[in-house]
Amino acid sequence: MQSLLQSVNSPADIKQMNIQQLEQLAAEIRETLIQVVSENGGHLAASLGVVELTLALHYVFDTPGDKLIWDVGHQSYTHKLLTGRRERFKSLRRFQGLSGFPRTEESEYDAFNTGHSSTSISAGIGMALARDLQEEDYRVVAIIGDGALTGGMVFEALNHAGHLGTTMTVVLNDNEMSISRNVGALSTYLSHLRSDPGYLWRKEELEGMLQRIPGIGPNILKAAGKVKDTVKYLVVPGALFEELGFTYIGPIDGHDLESLIPVLTKTRNMKGPVLLHVITKKGQGYEPAVRDPGVFHGVGPFDVETGAQLKKKARTYTSVFGDFMVSRAEQDVRVVAITAAMASGTGLAAFAQRFPERFFDVGICEQHAVTMAAGMARMGLCPVVAIYSTFLQRAYDQIIHDVCLQNLPVIFAVDRAGLVGEDGPTHHGVFDISYLRNIPNLTVMAPADENELADMLHSAFSYQSPVAIRYPRGAGEGVEVKTRRNFIPSGRGRVLTEGRDLLFLGLGKGVGTAWRASRILEEQGVRAAVADARFVKPLDMQLLSQLLGRFKRVVTIEDNVLHGGFGAAVLEAASELGYSPQVLRIGIPDKFVEHGKVDVLLENLQIDSPSVARKVIEHWPELGRLAGWRLLRFGEK
Ligand SMILES: Cc1ncc(C[n+]2csc(CCOP(=O)(O)OP(=O)(O)O)c2C)c(N)n1
């Protein structure tokens, strides 16, 4: 059969197709998605679930004039294939290739950049208001999952949209899944809507029945407002959304193009806010993904035949955290664990199984997670909140206002700190040191290896004040995690190797980089001391004072932005201590870092070990002369 996908260069090309052709196209798209993601890794299950929905949206709406806003954006692969990016699709998530999320810089069809969840309705309202004020004529459609619907911003936006009455469409893509199974009362509400196709009919029947009751009949709906509300909540589909001012349509089968196309065409001409409830299956069309949508939510390279992942699992920081939590909870009944829809990503799955009554998945609600933890700490529990660095940005005020201002002993396990790789700029965790180290009462630390992470977690429980421990994605340094835990006093760094010519002061992953750079320099006769700062707040002022008294050349290394980061903290401390060393700060420059493998990004930013060693010599040429000409060349390929 001739490939249809090969003939699609823009959405205009699908508008001529009939349903059968669209169905064939859907099958070809699925094949492409599976093939490319099996090689590059990516968000497969969500994308497979919206193939027909995406086709129908592009069939009915006129993009890029009409605006499609993909919430989170991880499900936008089909959209990319249909909007002129088919030939580049093989480069998905690769360095300098297509992004895994919508990017306005990448295509005029991407109406808004997304990556963090629950933003699409707010952005859509903004666009719809701009359209009306500028007297333009286009449609705005926000496509949001039932998982993303649990985020607080969505409620703020729904509340506002209903009040404004602005014309826009919200497509609720309901697959019952967040990354894991969706949680919350709203999720239960949606499942009622899903499971009872007789709702519409029942409502009519019930109203008819009420009309017939003598005495109360005709007036009941008017007179007994409360009764009506109760009845309505029970029987009108989508009453919750209707009450908020939306016209609710659905639920409809999101894999059936024959329903999707006419219903979307109808909503296209409706005034005011409309919510179309679409039911889909995560992973649709690929058995392994349907069977295990959590694993195939964000998956590494895999074997298409079996669905087995190709990379062997090395011991990660995340798993060290997960194991620590289980053993700590065994010893201390006050320990509770909180996640914002990332039970498995944060390593808390085993904890959840073992201690279900002490495990809380709040949905995609980072703010709520933090303030809830504050409440628990206030009452004597020991809450540990595990949130990725990038998503913790959402809860900044809650960290300050609800936790730190009351000096409550909440422990923040800040996973995915530093560069995260293929998910790119929306997901890199490169700001947390800057945004946390200025908060009074908060201790901020970063382990140099897996064992240090376990020791830091262990120690944090004794500090009796808020603590944030930030650690990177993926495998650690390959260090054994000892069974005996060491207590690390607050604000105590350590020297790893002595040296003569310069001091490397590393934080977290920066310690390993420093160590490897020092080995390269050592081979060339330059002797560098290496210290593991461990704390960015409080800094070890005593150790710093000793070291700054001995070293004029200091290199700080971190995987946070340089602005306001660890190196900046060291400069401030040096100034306070009355030292003025020559400081070379290595870290993330003042720009958003693209996607790509972490190693490739580090090399590209010249913050990998060979680049650091080379920079040291460029910065202090006298060290190069000391060691001979070869120094100027190392790091070159
Ligand atoms: C603020 C924020 N927190 C957490 C995440 C991680 N995350 C990405 S997708 C996702 C689940 C989204 O579920 P849903 O919206 O239903 O989409 P589906 O994948 O089921 O299609 C989560 C928790 C995120 N992107 N943003």
Which spans of ≥5 residues are poorly predicted at pLDDT below 50?
199-207, 212-235, 631-637
The fold-level CATH name of the largest domain is: Rossmann fold
Helix % is 40-55%
Shape: globular
Q: What proportion strand?
A: 5-15%
**Which structural class is indicated by helix and strand composition?**
alpha/beta
Bound molecules: thiamine diphosphate
- How many distinct domains? 3
What is the number of E strands? 17
Helix run count: 26
CATH class of the largest domain: Alpha Beta
Radius of gyration: 27 Å
What does this 3D model show about the protein?
The protein has a seven-stranded mixed β-sheet with strand order 7-6-8-9-11-10-15, with helices on both faces. The two termini are 47 Å apart. Strand 2, helix 6 and strand 3 form a beta-alpha-beta unit. The radius of gyration is 27 Å and the shape is globular. It has 26 helices and 17 strands. Helix 16 packs parallel to helix 18 and helix 21 packs across helix 25. The chain folds into three domains: 287 residues, 3-Layer(aba) Sandwich (Rossmann fold); 151 residues, 3-Layer(aba) Sandwich (Rossmann fold); 140 residues, Rossmann fold (3-Layer(aba) Sandwich), CATH 3.40.50. By secondary structure, it is an alpha/beta fold.
